[in-house]
Amino acid sequence: MKKFLALFTLIFSLGLVGCSSKAEVKDVPVNDIKDAINNEATLPVQPVADVDAKDFYIFESVKDNIQEGFVLQSMMNVNLQDVFVVKTDNVEKIKSAIDEYKNGDSFKMFADGYGGENNITAAANSILKNKGNYVYFIATNNATDVESKILKVIEK
């Protein structure tokens, strides 16, 4: 019985350690994130438009909730390559604004095939998540690669 109790305690302890080892979020400037992803290897469609998130039209109603952020988009209007990163004090409001954009006509046109199969894939595989107080939206063909670079910068 003692062996069983000791084994149970060990397994339970290991489970707690495993669950508590989730990566924490560093407090970094969003420009560090932008620098990590804004290159041809990560965003192959160049040139890229770089807009302050507070000046981007979809964030007009929530810009007071934005501490800092950026929007990168392909300047070639037939290619979907969106990367938004926002540091915020209200994650849900920012995610809601991005959801409205995703469900709007300009994004849906890419999802429906404007510009070709690559845009359909980028729209279908888009990522909208947050890590701590950073919200990110990625609609590129290599969204998981972009996400891993973002997480590499912000996770401890």
TrEMBL record:
Q: Which domain of life is it from?
A: Bacteria
Q: Which UniProt keywords apply?
A: Lipoprotein, Signal
Q: Which InterPro entries match?
A: DUF4358
Q: Which Pfam families match?
A: DUF4358
Residues of the signal peptide: 1-23
Q: What is the protein name stated in its UniProt record?
A: Prokaryotic membrane lipoprotein lipid attachment site profile
